[in-house]
Amino acid sequence: MTVAEMFAKLGFSEEQIKGLDAKLVEGYQSVLTEAENARAAAMAKAQEAADIERRYNHMYATEIVPALNKWGSEAAVKDAEIEFYRKQNEGARSAGFLPKDAPTFTADKAATEGTERPRSSDGRYVAGGNPVVGSPGAVDRGEFLHAMSEMSWAENKYKNLYDTNSMPEDYDFFKDLGQASSRAMKFRDYFAEKYKFADKERERNERKQKEHDESIRKDERVKLEKEWAERGGGNPALRPASESKFAGIRKGMQSGQWKDPVKLSPEQRRLQNSQMIASDQAEMQSQGTA
Is residue 190 a contact partner of residue 176, using CB atoms and an 8 Å limit? Predict the structure, then answer.
């Protein structure tokens, strides 16, 4: 929305809007632009977060859960096979096919106690029901999404600050996650320290500030050149008649401010002409603001 549209909605007439102070309009426009940029940035971040959430949910539902269920089903099949062969062995013993004193395997109760893998009524693996060290367990959905969010933040932040599309060769998210945990640090603090995010952000801000200052200087230079052209005319043949500046130049030569152009080399003359033009522009600008 432009400033004119905003004032029109507030009931101002077209004449009133045109009569507004230019600096006031410029200030309002700056505020509106910043507000619009902030709104667009917030919407972009919200959309990005929604996309990440959707991708992680899809991965969890289509890859993680099926893999856990498959593992649980395979484990159930193995348990059924073991139970089948155990009953076959017991049947063979009772029928006399095997000596009753033949050695059999008896599991150590202390070793197997608490290692049962509970499942739901449909045979699926129950979350948190597998305490066997080293065996696959159910992944907490919240922890999984948090880890994926941290990974996404780390990669996006690095690529943005270093202006690249790839991560460093030594990048290993899970290794960095473990290092942060071992140092009792938050992952983002550890990652930012490792890759010197603060230094990169300071360099980027300094570069943006320099570009901003250069833009202001350029705009000011164009403005002065435009005013100079409007006052003196761009075509010497069409310039309005004006009083000769020789008297001022002569006065400057007598005071020592300017040197005699005849005694200067071409390079020195050009330099002095540029300085004289800049001096005239500064004087004209001071008269215009006085």
Answer: yes
**Beta partners for residue 119, in sequence order:** 125
Identity of the amino acid at 227: E
pTM passes above 0.70:
no
Residue 35 sits in which domain range?
A: 1-96
pLDDT over 90 (residue 192):
yes
What is the DSSP annotation of 140-174?
PHHHHHHHHHHHHHHHHHHHHHHT-SS--TT--HH
In a domain, 229, yes or no: no
pLDDT at 126: 57
- Residue 125, strand partner residues: 119
CA distance 124 to 121: 7
Question: Is 159:165 a contact under the CB 8 Å cutoff?
Answer: yes
Whether residue 18 is contained in a domain is answered as: yes
Q: Is residue 21 part of a domain?
A: yes
Residue pair 7/16 in contact (Cβ under 8 Å)? The answer is: yes
